[in-house]
Amino acid sequence: MEQTHEECRLVGLSATLPNYHDVGTFLRVKPSNLFFFDNSFRPVPLEQQYIGITEKKALKRYQAMNDVVYDKVMEHAGKSQVANVDLRDLIPYGFAIHHAGMTRVDRTLVEDLFADRHLQVLVSTATLAWGVNLPAHTVIIKGTQIYSPEIGRWTELGALDVMQLPIESQMISKLADTLNAEVVLGTINNVSDAMNWLGYTYLYIRMVKSPTLYGITQEQAVHALLFCT
């Protein structure tokens, strides 16, 4: 909008994200003009339930998670849909998977079928929640561990962390294509233009706050900060 000089008074986002300040910075919104409406404004309240698994052994812990997930799915499935006990183990009808190892055609097909409600249950990796908008009645987060490269092991996320995972930029995987498109459009003519353009992206906003997530070491981040100042 800044480059096209089009006037816009209000920008509304329906996505639920905790780091809305980053989006406000990305859109060049003054803090006094940034408003956030929490879950208390929802016409239909969200219910959150946490189930603890105390098993220490990894294999048994994942089996316990599978049992809990199965029980929760059966609760929402309804007795009329699985009246036959023998069919409970044949529940793959109406199920699908979604992960980065699939072809793009297969992923798109799964997304479309789920959006059109032809699929009742979708099992996916965490990246689906960041890249695709697929509203669901019930979302089950299986496992709350993430790998921390700083300490070299898996760490457990707290309840507050799970509910406030920041929305990261996915632009870096397509950065070369995006830059080429801007060059063709005439927006970028030299390195200075490219740096100026990058400063207006959400990728830049998140890289400044969490450089290590985007392949930048702490040493490089400190050096860049000292060089810029």
UniProtKB/TrEMBL annotation:
SUPFAM superfamilies per record: P-loop containing nucleoside triphosphate hydrolases
Annotated signal sequence range: none
Domain Helicase C-terminal: 81-155
The entry's keywords: ATP-binding, Helicase, Hydrolase, Nucleotide-binding
Gene Ontology MF terms: ATP binding; DNA helicase activity; hydrolase activity
InterPro entries to which the protein is assigned, alphabetical: Hel308_SKI2-like, Helicase_C-like, P-loop_NTPase, WH-like_DNA-bd_sf, WH_MER3
Keyword Kinase recorded: no
Any one GO CC term of the record: nucleus
Protein's name in the database: Helicase C-terminal domain-containing protein
